[in-house]
Design brief:
Number of strands: 8
CATH class: Alpha Beta
Order of helices and strands: HHHEHEHEEHEHHEHEHHE
Radius of gyration: 20 Å
C-alpha cells in the first residue's frame, strides 16, 4: 500500500502532465487522469463560462463544481484558493473581491504555478498571487483569509483532517469556506479505489460523505451546509477498465455512488471578552 507521500507524488506527477495538456484533452477524461472515454465530455465539472472573471486560458476543465459561485465573496475580501491549478477560481474570485481585495492561490505542482502566474501576468492582475506549497501545511499566516475556496482538490489529499485544520487556522474569526469536492455513498469496488490512475482522476481518493462532513464539524466549524449536490455518472467504457461485466452491473444497480458536493461552513467569531468594568461586573 502506498504511503501518503507516495500518493501525493502520484498526484503531483499526474497534474504536472495535466498542466501541459489542452482543455479538450482534460475534458475527455476523468478529471484529466487519462482514463479516456469515447463519450467525450467532462464527467465532473460545471460550466464556468458565464461567470464574471472567467478566463479560458486558466480553465483546464478539472473542477467538480462552482465553489466561487456560492462563496459569498465581498469587495475587499482576502480569498485563498486551495489547489489553484492554472488560476481559474482565483480569477473568478478576483472579479468578486475587486481591486481592493486579494486572492492567493496555493498549488504544490510547479507546472501549475508557472501556468497560473503567466495567466495573471497576461491579465495584469497585481492582487492575485500564486504560492507553491502543500495545502496540508499552507504557506500562509494564521487568521488572514475572509474566504477559502477549493474545487475538486481535497479528495486528492491523503490527510483531509490536516487540510480542514489548516483552513480553520488561516481563516479569520467569522470567515468561511465554500468547497466543491467528490464524496462517496456506499462502497466502491476495490478496483476503482486501488488504481493509481483513478486516484489522480478524483475518485479513489474520495471518502464517504458523512465522514467528510463530520471532519468539518469536529474541526470546529459551524453552520455546515451542503450548498449543492449532484451525482457523477462515470461512463461504462471507463468503468469497464476496472470492473468486469458482472461487477459493473452490480455497481450500477447497487446503492453506492459518487457525488459532487459544494459545502459551506464558518469559523466561529471570537467570543467577546468578559466584561470586567464596574458597570457590568457584580
Amino acid at each position: 500500500m502506498e504511503t501518503n507521500e507516495q500518493l501525493k507524488e502520484i498526484v503531483r506527477q499526474k497534474y504536472s502532465e495535466i498542466a501541459l495538456q489542452d482543455k479538450e484533452t482534460n475534458q475527455s477524461s476523468c478529471c484529466g487522469s487519462g482514463c479516456c472515454s469515447t463519450e467525450v465530455y467532462n464527467i465532473m465539472s460545471d460550466d464556468y463560462t458565464r461567470m464574471q472573471g472567467y478566463n479560458p486560458d486558466a480553465d483546464l476543465g478539472l473542477g467538480c463544481g462552482l465553489p466561487t459561485q456560492f462563496a459569498k465573496i465581498k469587495k475587499g475580501d482576502m480569498v485563498i484558493d486551495l489547489g489553484s491549478g492554472a488560476g481559474n477560481d482565483c480569477f473568478i474570485a478576483r472579479a468578486e473581491t475587486g481591486e481592493t481585495g486579494k486572492v492567493i492561490g496555493i498549488d504544490f505542482t510547479t507546472a501549475m504555478i508557472d501556468k497560473a502566474r503567466a495567466n495573471a501576468e497576461k491579465l495584469g492582475f497585481n492582487n492575485v498571487e500564486f504560492r507553491q506549497g502543500d495545502i496540508e501545511k499552507m504557506p500562509v499566516t494564521a487568521n488572514v483569509a475572509d474566504v477559502v475556496v477549493s474545487n475538486c482538490v481535497l479528495n486528492l489529499v491523503p490527510d483531509k483532517d490536516a487540510v480542514f485544520k489548516e483552513i480553520y487556522r488561516v481563516l479569520k474569526p467569522g470567515g468561511h469556506f465554500s468547497i466543491s469536492d467528490v464524496v462517496l455513498l456506499g462502497n466502491l469496488p476495490d478496483a476503482l479505489r486501488k488504481d493509481a490512475e483513478m486516484y489522480a482522476g478524483c475518485v479513489a481518493g474520495a471518502i464517504q460523505k458523512d465522514v467528510y462532513l463530520e471532519l468539518i464539524n469536529i474541526n470546529g466549524f459551524k453552520n455546515v451546509t451542503v450548498q449543492k449536490e449532484k451525482p457523477i455518472i462515470i461512463p461504462d467504457d471507463i468503468l469497464s477498465n476496472y470492473l468486469n461485466e458482472e461487477k459493473l452491473e452490480n455497481f450500477r444497480s447497487g446503492s453506492s455512488g459518487i457525488f459532487s458536493i459544494t459545502v459551506f461552513a464558518e469559523k466561529p467569531s471570537q467570543e467577546k471578552a468578559a466584561c470586567c468594568s464596574p458597570e457590568c461586573c457584580s
